[in-house]
Amino acid sequence: MTTVLRAHAEEQYAEELAILAKDDDRVRPPGWKLSPWAVTAYILGDGDRITPKYIGPRRIVEVAVATLATDRALLLLGVPGTAKTWLSEHLAAAISGDSTLLVQGTAGTAEEAIRYGWNYARLLSEGPSRQALTPSPVMRAMAEGRIARVEELTRMPSDVQDALITVLSEKTLPIPELNEEVQASRGFNIIATANDRDRGVNDLSSALRRRFNTVVLPVPATAEEEVDIVSRRVDQLGRSLELPQTMTGLEEIRRVVTVFRELRTGVTEDGRTKVKSPSGTLSTAEAISVLTNGIALAAHFGDGVLRPSDVAAGIVGAVIQDPVSDRVVWREYLETVVRERQDWRDFYRACRDAG
Known about the structure:
This protein has about 350 residues and is α/β, with parallel strands linked by helices. The chain contains 16 helices and 9 strands.
């Protein structure tokens, strides 16, 4: 039994990757563990031995995989909760067999995270040398011919972002202190992610944006598709966290998804009633979190059956991000939409009590 809370994709799905590698007789780009066709099969599943990792338009995945087979980097763009990080991890796992070469973008990310740093103890005692140099994940990916992942690219300061320009255009990383450079080995590429809602934080320069092929990940097109995604992820998380077995009714999952979709789009499912949208994103990822928390409540403090009271507090917490304006939006939705649905009476009472 492993004590790791969350295994990397290449470890968690090692058996599926091995199956695909064994049966994969198609052309593989230099440095790739699988062919583009097999990578796509790993991401979308085959309906038999390979489970789907991403549920969405097949063409989006094909374009993303094809991009990584060229000399262009890939930028996954979308609103929060559209599985950008999840997809980038699985793409790196299938292509390189290693999803750990990761740079997490924040306002405090330094240029060393993209280029390299120094072991200052050795630098002071020995002077600049290869032994004193600390490679970044990007430098390691270049040297080893692997995929590097850059999360939340637009959260990084602009000067740090621009450190990628030479890497992406020249496929080299200069080390002026040593009068050397690291040249990218075949198989190297970069997958970056960014949120639509982060526009204006640190916009990408036109020079950097040209180095990326941008693929926009949409929110689930239909309620049924989103219910399917949420059901699968909730089941996977429950097993990985070893939560006690709980009777997870599809009805509760459908209710949570319906509430999130209606508040997100500003109109009810039947299209008859317009509703106000709260300040939060109410993404698919948040719906998964609400239901996972509800399962934990039902398993440890309830009768083992997921009920409206188990998910109500999580929904209220997800919707009400701004304690003033969002509370008004939620109360209005509760009274004008939820209350009028005859088969939602228990759900209405639970949400009203939780609020």
